[in-house]
Design brief:
The chain has one domain: 2-enoyl-CoA Hydratase, Chain A, domain 1, CATH 3.90.226.10. The chain is built from eleven helices and nine strands.
Length: 256
């Protein structure tokens, strides 16, 4: 099977009202377009599900939380329309998370690269393990973190976003990410992460659903223009990714 067609997104709703949206891909939990489309659908469905009080975004167990966009898919793209659609994928997920009426909690158990950092930035409350180093790798392959940039900058600020964007080969620790407010909590072990996640979600589920919905609106005030902004940013990446620089950089990366 074509590797870009592998993996899954599933939603498990617990009896106490937590909708766990879980994604998996055999290549370090990377996200081809297929899974990005499925994530959008999962957030839209969770937002409408009366049994779901809150949402948790997580990936299936692997040492990497998310390796970002699928290079296997990107390397095969040779026209602008397809490239634009590819880069719009993460923007669509971020907008689905932003407009989901339920509070979205992120569980970042391992490394997050590129679009994986964007997912962590787009949740309402993010918790991680100490293994959750972060890196924005896009510049190294010829484009930049344009689509996820608004979400990342909103959390960490302009200076920290610039630090990440201009150092595409540099891993930053979970403690650094916590100090910049990308993560609200960072734990020594995944077991501690999961224990706190269960405690936090139990508390959230006990609160007024209406109050939580209103808080969600307040948290995201001022981002209404993202429906137009993120596609504009996708067009920048979509154009740059067709360059010889990007094709050669990705080929070199895949070799090794």
């Amino acid at each position: 099977m074509d590797i870009t067609q592998q993996g899954y997104v599933r939603t498990d709703v617990t009896t106490d009202g937590v909708a766990h949206i879980i994604f998996y891909h055999p290549n370090h939990n990377s996200l081809p377009s297929k899974l990005l489309h499925e994530l959008v659908a999962a957030f839209e469905a969770a937002g409408k599900n009366p049994e779901a009080k809150i949402v948790v975004l997580r990936s299936a167990e692997h040492k990497t939380f998310c390796a970002g966009a699928s290079f296997d898919e990107l390397v095969a793209i040779d026209d602008f329309e397809t490239s634009l659609a590819f880069f719009s994928g993460f923007g669509n997920v971020i907008n689905a998370m932003r407009t989901c009426p339920k509070i979205v909690v992120g569980r970042i158990h391992g490394k997050a690269v590129g679009g994986g950092v964007g997912l962590a930035a787009a949740v309402d409350f993010c918790m991680a393990s100490k293994w959750a180093s972060v890196r924005l790798s896009e510049l190294a392959v010829g484009f930049g973190p344009f689509v996820i940039g608004p979400a990342v900058e909103r959390k960490v600020g302009a200076a920290a976003f610039a630090q990440m964007a201009l150092n595409p080969s540099e891993w930053l620790t979970a403690d650094w990410a916590k100090s910049k407010n990308l993560f609200q909590e960072a734990f020594d072990t995944v077991e501690q992460l999961d224990a706190y996640l269960a405690h936090f979600c139990k508390n959230l589920c006990s609160y007024s659903p209406e109050a939580l919905r209103e808080l969600k609106r307040v948290f995201w005030q001022g981002t209404e223009h993202w429906d137009a902004l993120l596609p504009e940013r996708a067009a920048i990446s979509g154009r740059l990714a067709l360059s010889d620089f990007t094709k050669e950089a990705i080929a070199a990366f895949k070799k090794g």
